[in-house]
Amino acid sequence: MVVLAKGELEQIALPAAAPPRADVRSVDLSAPAGPAREAAARALVAACEEHGFFRVTGHGVPAELVRAAEAAAAGFFARPQGEKDGEAPTLGYGSKRIGGNGDLGWVEYLLLGVNPAVPAASASSSTLPLRGLLDEYTVAVRRMACAVLELMAEGLGIAGAGDGDGDTVLARLVARADSDCMLRVNHYPPRPALNYPCLTGFGEHTDPQIISVLRANGTSGLEVALRDGAWASVPPDGDAFFVNVGDTLQVLTNGRFRSVRHRVVVNSEKSRVSMIFFGGPPPDERLAPLPQLLGDDGGRSRYRDFTWSEFKTSGCRTRLAEDRLSRFEKQ
Ligand SMILES: C=C1C[C@]23C[C@@]1(O)CC[C@H]2[C@@]12CC[C@H](O)[C@@](C)(C(=O)O1)[C@H]2[C@@H]3C(=O)O
Ligand SMILES: O=C(O)CCC(=O)C(=O)O
Ligand SMILES: [Fe+2]
After folding, report:
1. For the structural domain made of 19-328, what CATH number should be given?
2. Domain Fe2OG dioxygenase spans what residues (predicted)?
């Protein structure tokens, strides 16, 4: 349940709007080596440059695992409020407050680190099955995120830039044992019967990490900002995965890829459950445009170097909608 205090509803009310449908590009991760894979890699790069957003097909994540994780999450959100609140320390349960700087949304959520020291130890007997399924789901989606980054490296012509262990430079940033990855499960209850036609579910923002892999239960609500700033709605698709370019990937590509601004609007009678994997780098990783990608800009980097923990610390002080990269841009 999401309970808003007097005055808070006005903060998240939105005017009725039906943005046009986004033209979401599809990338087939299962394309066989050769011309088909080269075409998929080119399509991926074009989508990241143009929109910072695309759909992934041929992803290899078992549908049964997705359904089971989503059903277990929906079951958790249906529990009594007191039980859910009790899982704040173990499952990162929260409601209506996003981050610590006053952002509100018509949402309740779970927010989990992907590399906790002893994952199952923090789960109670009643949340153990949910925790186990979310862990299994995360492993599968993280693998997919790395496969997307491998294909991306091929499309960018930097696939030989690994250290010989098979992973390319981009995939390795998310694959390492100490990579700072997270899983978020959001539940947007149906829009309440009020005077407002639309509510902010999750306010507009860009994701700070390298890559986000999102899926939802076939309920609409996700919108992406186009280059001209206009919103476009992402058609609901219960079977697909969507990928967002994050701020860090914008930096690594020296601004060639676009960290996509997105939001969730609640105007549906159906509840929306989404699961998002955020692939972030290890805390001490120094981030800067990849040298191989500086060519197009005459060798000039648009961003100053920073570590992921520096970026995270500075980002945690910002409101959701703020541009977190501007302070790292070179003049
Ligand atoms: C307002 C905030 C919530 C957020 C941390 C921040 O200070 C700014 C970035 C927000 C965001 C957006 C993407 C992810 O949902 C998230 C977990 C993340 O890494 O950055 C959230 C943060 C959060 O909810 O704590
Ligand atoms: O719940 C969604 O569909 C998107 C949420 C989102 O953008 C986020 O959690 O960062
Ligand atoms: Fe997001």
Report:
1. 2.60.120.330
2. 178-281
